[in-house]
């Protein structure tokens, strides 16, 4: 039954994508109001689907790639809706909605999973580690989106293009500020996600760090975002360089998330543990 709910959720995310595009094209207040509401409806239905899975299986739906993609899109939409309440940045949904739809669609396309969660993994470490990790990645997804907008807005200003499609874009200063805010929140969440993952590995596997591909990838991404945040705080990094490095960091996160375990098999393969 949760699969049926996920299919309807994906349709709502697709509908939200369409209304966000219409908003950018027509700049109608109606679509700026209704688009986040459609995403909210999808998010609530998505929550119901994940909750149903939890009550049926007894653990969060994060143990397989298809489930992880679904949860990733759910957390990302939830973070966007929270940001929308505070900053009223409707255009950010133009990036979040299609990404959420594609992730949800991919999760459905991979089909139903099989097998039970190993007894040793049925522990409080699972929701703790995964929640922190996904929250950090979701915040970095929003940092990625505002960085893309920054580069587009900068190009528009330099080329002096004044088409209507650029009007909803915030100023460069605001986009740069949002990038900093998302990095400030995302980096500690990612750090806590790595720490709880290491503690969980120590409790379950007997060693805190085994230099597995996923751990190495996480460490590289942590160093990249940490260096970027330090550069912003101590060296005053701003603008195009920060936007570009933020995009690179998210591409690394998403790339390994999708394909890393299939290219570099490990004990994490097929699961988000």
Short structural summary:
With 273 residues, this protein is mainly α.
Question: How would you describe this protein?
Answer:
This protein is mainly alpha-helical. The chain folds into 2 domains: 111 residues; 156 residues, no CATH class. It is built from 8 helices and no strands. Helix 1 runs antiparallel to helix 2 and helix 7 packs antiparallel against helix 8. The C terminus is likely disordered.
Essential attributes:
273 residues; mainly alpha; 8 helices
Number of helices: 8
Strand portion, in percent?
under 5%
Number of strands: 0
> How many domains make up the 3D coordinates?
2
| Alpha-beta classification | mainly alpha
Based on CA atoms alone, the radius of gyration comes out at 19 Å
Shape: flat
Q: Which regions contain 5 or more consecutive residues with pLDDT less than 50?
A: 269-273
Q: Calculate the mean pLDDT score and round it.
A: 83
Helix percent band: over 70%
Query: Biggest sheet, in brief?
Result: none
Order of helices and strands: HHHHHHHH
